[in-house]
Structures are given as structure tokens and as C-alpha cells.
Amino acid sequence: MRAALAAALPLAVPSLAHGRAPAPLVVGGLPVTCNLTLPVTCMAKAASLRQGGGQPVGFEYAKYSGWAEIKESLMTGRIQAAYMLAPLVMDLVDYRIPLKIVSLGHRSGAVIMVHANSAYRKFSDLRGKLIAIPSRFAVDYLFLRKMLASAGMTAKDIEIIEMPPPDMPAALYTRTIDAYCTGEPFGAAAQRAGYARPLAMTRDQWRNYICCVLTVREDLIRDHRPVVQDLVNYVQAAGSWLDAGAANRDKAVRIAARREFFNQDPKILRFVMDNPEDRVTYGDLRMLRAEFDDLMKLSLEARTLKRPVAFERYVDESFVKNLKPVAIAP
Q: What are the b/e assignments for 297-329, b being 16+ CB within 10 Å?
């Protein structure tokens, strides 16, 4: 596997070529509310470019259907920046893929959903039941394991199946699964439809939860550091803007629902923003070593990581430490 990953590296082609009019930096993401700062960032940067201010390079959102596709695109250099699962970045760096986490993307946002008519009232009621997760690299899986530990259970006390999050609400509706653990808006979609309810939410059980992180290739940092700094400036500012008030969140919903971004029903996205308001939060995007250490410890216990990876190998804090204010007026 290491040889195959190393062979992919020469395929990397910088998306920003010297001597040409600057092309937009393509940033990959999933249509999930954990990635909501990305559409806001793209629109705010476009507004700034129209006014002729700041760095001349824009940002373009590239929608992916799953983490595996984003991973492959980053590995081969087809894209040089993306929102990624933090444990997956740790694992790729362990295999010498030249990536760095440069910002968080959100806080909280994962839920464990059960059928509205089920008898499950506490987590221990799920003993022996079939629970869907997006991936064993997903932090949702680590959330599930934390809930198991709090109930005095282990992964052996339940059945786990990996499933794409868009398929989870239908699987719960047909009782193909007993519960699912994932990020939004796939919990809210079933809840709003009336056939599901949350059994546990990270907002209540894991307040410093981090999952999706802004990740860039090291060659982008080396060759276009001002562009990376500008991207981090906008992502961090978008997070503060989103948490500044309901009017901003409502505008973000309208942006994200558009075809070029999430292409989703704005009513479902709005439900996530309002039920409750801190179901997903964005204002505190600090990168704290202790929180990443905790995430790594959980990943090692879950055996999704084979060995510890030094913080400095997969995180570049310099951009967050050198933040510059930018206007968010999407």
C-alpha cells in the first residue's frame, strides 16, 4: 500500500500555474452542514474579487459524494485542498502523503438517529442492534464508540454496517437498520419527515467534537502560501459570521442549497440550523493540540490508526496564527 501511495505523488499537478491569469483554487467538499463554511467562503471571496480587493485567486467548490473520492483526488493532486476527516488525514500522513490540516471546518454536528416509533430511549437499548456509520475513519464512528463506553458497552455489543449517509434515512424508514450515526443534514432529513428522532447528539455528549478539517497539499503551501493564508482567513471568518446570528445562517442556507454547492432542499438545511441552534456550530475553529491528541487516542483504540502520528506532521498552525480579517459579504 505504501508503494502504491508513493507512486501517486508524481501525478500531482499544481492548479495554480505561474505566468497565467490566476485560476480559482478548487476546494473539495461533501454536501454536509459540517462543510457549510466552504460555500460561504467561495461566495464571500467572489464578492471580494468583484470589488477588486485582496488576493486575486478565487475559490471554487467541488462537490464529492464520499470521502474515498476526495482522498484519491488529494493523493493524486487533482485537487490541492479539501475538507477531510481528521483521522483520515492522520492516516494518509502516516503513509507519507504530503498533507497538512490548516483549519477546522466546524464543531459538533453528528447525531445518532432511531425510528420515531422505536422503544429505544437510552443508548444501552441499542444492545444487539444494527447501527449504520459512514466509515470506520469517520469521527461519527468514534462518537458511537464514546457512547458505547459511557453505557458500559463495546463494539461487540452491537452490529455495525458502513453505509453512505444519504442512504441512511431510507434504511431507517424501512427498518433495515435500527439506528444510524452520521453528520447533518442526514439526521435532520429523517427527523423533519417525522419518522426519526435523535437518541444522542454531539452537542450534548462531546462538546469539543471535531470532524471535518480544511486540508491542503504541502506543495500548495510551498508554492502558493499567500493563497492558503487567504483561504484560511475566509474559512475562519465564515465560521464567525455563521455563528453571529440567525440572519447570517439563513443566508448561508440559501447559498448552500444552490445547485453549484450542496443542491439540497433549503428547508432541511434550515431545520439543522434551528433545531436546536447549536446542532452544528462554526464560531470556534481553533486547532488545539489536546483535542487532536484525544482524537488520535480514540482512533488508535478503534484501530483505524496503526500508530501515533506526531502533531507537527499533519497540522500546520501557522495560518491560523497569522489570521487576517476579511469581510464576509456573500
A: ebbbebebbeeebebeebbbbebbeeeeebebe
| DSSP secondary structure string for all residues of 288-330 | -HHHHHHHHHHHHHTTSSSS---HHHHB-THHHHT--------
d(CA 216, CA 320): 14
What burial class does residue 271 get, using C-beta atoms within 10 Å of its C-beta: 0-12 exposed, 13-18 middle, 19+ buried?
buried
In the sheet where 99-104 sits, what is the strand order? 59-63, 25-29, 81-85, 212-217, 99-104
> 3-state class of 144 per DSSP?
helix
Contact 60, 42 (CB under 8 A): yes
How many contiguous H segments (helices) and E segments (strands) does the chain have?
Answer: 15, 12
Q: What is the pLDDT of residue 1?
A: 38
**Could you tell me the pLDDT band of residue 9, with boundaries at 50, 70 and 90?**
very low
- Strand bridging mode 280-281 / 107-108: antiparallel
Give all domains of the chain, ordered by start, each with its CATH number: 2-107+211-321 (3.40.190.10), 110-205 (3.40.190.10)
